[in-house]
């Protein structure tokens, strides 16, 4: 496993723990389909949450939040639609972002409803 892949996996693990400590229930991690990948799928009450995890140790080019551009958002929306197609009932949904400046668990920023879908 490359260092980048290992860092990404660790960031997703930290983000999942962070959200679970705040009452969300983890349903699936690394959902993959032909449109892309969703890092975390969680339940927040009645709402289904599709979470994108970003690790950026440097603030160049706008940091972690700026790295979720229009193309990435489009892939996330299409992947979420693919996931929802298998459900009997479509619940309220939102897209969150979990931004990590480091892998030590400090400074995690949770952006609810980071973009519309």
Question: Would you summarize the structure shown here?
Answer:
This protein has 117 residues and is of the alpha+beta class.
What does this protein look like?
The protein has 117 residues and is of the alpha+beta class. It has a single domain, classed as 3-Layer(aba) Sandwich (Trna Endonuclease, Chain: A, domain 1). The protein is built from 3 helices and 5 strands. The protein has helices at residues 3-21, 63-66, 70-85, and strands spanning 25-33, 36-44, 47-55, 93-100, 109-115. A hairpin with an 8-residue loop joins β4 (93-100) and β5 (109-115).
CATH class: Alpha Beta
Name the overall outline: globular
Q: How many H/I helical runs?
A: 3
Arithmetic mean of pLDDT: 88
Predict the CATH topology.
Answer: Trna Endonuclease, Chain: A, domain 1
Strand order of the largest sheet: 1-2-3-4-5
This entry's quaternary arrangement is single chain
Task: Give the ordered list of helices and strands.
Answer: HEEEHHEE
**Which structural class should the secondary elements be placed in?**
alpha+beta
Strand content: 35-45%
Number of strands: 5
The helical percent reads: 25-40%
Count of all domains: 1
What would you report as the Rg, rounded to the nearest angstrom?
Answer: 14 Å
- Catalogue the unreliable spans: none
CATH architecture: 3-Layer(aba) Sandwich
